[in-house]
Amino acid sequence: MAADLAPVPARSRIGAAVGLLLLSPVCAEYLIGYDQIISRPWDMLTGLLVLGPLYGAAAVLIRETARRTGRGWPTMVLLSVACGLVQAGVIDQSLFNPDFVQEASWDQDRLPTYVPALGISVKHLVGFVGGHVLWSFCAPIGVVESCVPRLADRPWLGRIGITVMSVLYGLGALVIFKEHSKDFLATPARLGTVAALALGLIVVAFALPRRPPGGGTGGRVPPPWAAGCGAVVLLGAHQLSAPGWGGLALNVAALALAGGSLLRWSGRAGWGAAHVLAVCGAALVVNAALSFVVEPLGDASPVLKYGANAALMATVLLLLGWARLRLRPHLARPSGETGAAPDAARGRGAERVRETPHG
Hints:
The protein has 359 residues and is mainly alpha-helical. The protein starts with 9 loop residues before the first helix and ends with a helix. A two-stranded antiparallel sheet has the order 1-2. It has one domain. It is globular and about 55 Å long. The protein has helices spanning 10-30, 41-68, 73-91, 104-110, 122-147, 159-180, 188-207, 224-240, 245-266, 273-290, 302-327, 343-355, and strands spanning 114-115, 120-121.
């Protein structure tokens, strides 16, 4: 434990934050290859100038907020749901805009579960918000934390770093909001409802009791490879669910089974960092694999599309392999949190970050 409490160089902490800043938008927008930008490498690169602040800065802030307050995955998941609601309901308003995408497939996916009284498609609600929770925020957080196991439960940034991330997120959100509100703006009632729901989720996230360190209950947990395989099956079912209420029922059932299993197993003493990497890595692999059969919106060069799909899949596999190697020395200490240390260790880690606020 003494080694875990040793001061960590600022470059390591900042490097982890920058890694999450970049991985989050790639997982959110590029990995599954749903847009024609997948065949334009330069546009993908420059797109990170906006998508990095919008997704990556949000992911960093979600993680920092939870870790600085001694909380873990339950809080991060709820904060991710709140942020996903704001993203889809306020910032780009894809939940409400019937012409958000000028393609026939948009209405084919939206209309079967459209509820006029709410002005939304329930399938889109589950898909958009669930997608943000899984691929924009939680999976990238879990993978990057696995790459830096010594820092997994510590804050990465000081006051200046958090301020920078907050400004970046605000600017990214403003750019996207202004772009998407040129031709459509949801009613104040709908925008206010989304904001109120997000605020309620944030309150609940911090009202949850903290899990005591090292206080996992007894009971069996699956090995990491089995947890990862199960995640592949359930997340694949979520992504491949058909339009309509029957497909939505399968979609929700898959997410509920995945969430319930994770909630149950993660509270047991045998759940550890390797399980977190297996589940989060499975999410990345699912979308990287599906990208080969997803037809992008708009016109895309097949050669460039499949080349980008292959490059992203290779990058995901290399990243997960590296994270697994980084975790190896820490796998003898199972915990309910990735690389979790006692609350006292968290507090001392936070104090060290506050003493070096340049991060």
